[in-house]
Write a structure and sequence with these properties.
Oligomer: heterodimer
Strand content of chain B: under 5%
Number of domains of chain A: 1
Strand content of chain A: 5-15%
Low-confidence stretches of chain B: none
Distance between the termini of chain B: 18 Å
Order of helices and strands of chain A: HEHHEEH
Mean pLDDT of chain A: 85
Structural class of chain A: mainly alpha
CATH class of chain A: Mainly Alpha
CATH superfamily of chain A: Winged helix-like DNA-binding domain superfamily/Winged helix DNA-binding domain
Distance between the termini of chain A: 57 Å
Radius of gyration of chain A: 16 Å
Radius of gyration of chain B: 25 Å
Number of helices of chain A: 4
Low-confidence stretches of chain A: 1-5
Number of strands of chain B: 0
Number of helices of chain B: 7
Amino acid sequence: MKVNSGEPISKPDLYVLARIIKVLKDRKKLNRTTLATSTGLAYDRLVKYLDWMSTKGFIEFDSNGEVLLTKLGAQTYDRLVDWILKYVGKVRFPKFSE
Amino acid sequence: MEAALSSKVAEFMTALDQVKKYKTLAASMTDFVLIILGTVVTALSVNISICLSSLFIGKYVGFSIVSSSLIIVLFPAGIIVAVFWVRHRIKSITIGQWKNKLNEGAPGALELLQNIQWDSIFSDIRYAKLGFFLYEIAKTLVYWVFAAALLFVFNGLVESVLHMTINYVVVMLVSLVVVLVLSKNDLHKRYDQMGRLDWLLWELRWFESEFRGANFEA
């Protein structure tokens, strides 16, 4: 299903991507309006992201046009968490006294 | 894994909050010095006014006691006010605003990391280090002057009772040694904190260069 005819996203903002996936992970399936509200994104922007995510196979749409997270989408989220942790996890913070 | 990420980013943000506190401490050094200078000016003004008044009224001894007592009260009061003012400024800064964002989980952690103003953080750490050093010097100097003043008063008493005078250089040296011994733990703590700020600076520099150059393939 084609969800957007506007200018496609070339490089997605990882924060936005993570937010969409996180909401879909928690709520299983949502229509686009509710998803826009839950993620705090403008509808048009969300639609562009959904378009990009569907071409990547992270989400799919059911017969009612509701958005579902695919297994690949869930794995991508886990990979993203792992990727951030790979960098942050290496930083050793000193303990400061008051 | 998401909990581990949140915990690590919380650690990260706590360290940045600490830098914010230290930067405020460094910035408070000006206030500290101004309060102390204000106290000195006030004490001198009071002293001069009392001495001038005694010239007109003609009872110097009574006025002299009042003047000395006021100065003895004013100096410690000035130091206490300065130290408490610095503490008040540090306590009044807002920290931990990132906690709500971090409750969002990985997206919140990612946004926090993406929004860090690295140049500002690095400059804050350098400023905090310099401020720490100058603040500690200013504090030690003030305590030294206060200790020396107390020893001079003691010296005056010894002189009037025993007719013995202690050399001024000895008084200054003894007061410095006393202040250094009493502030030993504080000085050591500050030195240690400066080393930790250096450590933090290196870790953050490494992270910033690695994270900025990294590319997540979705």
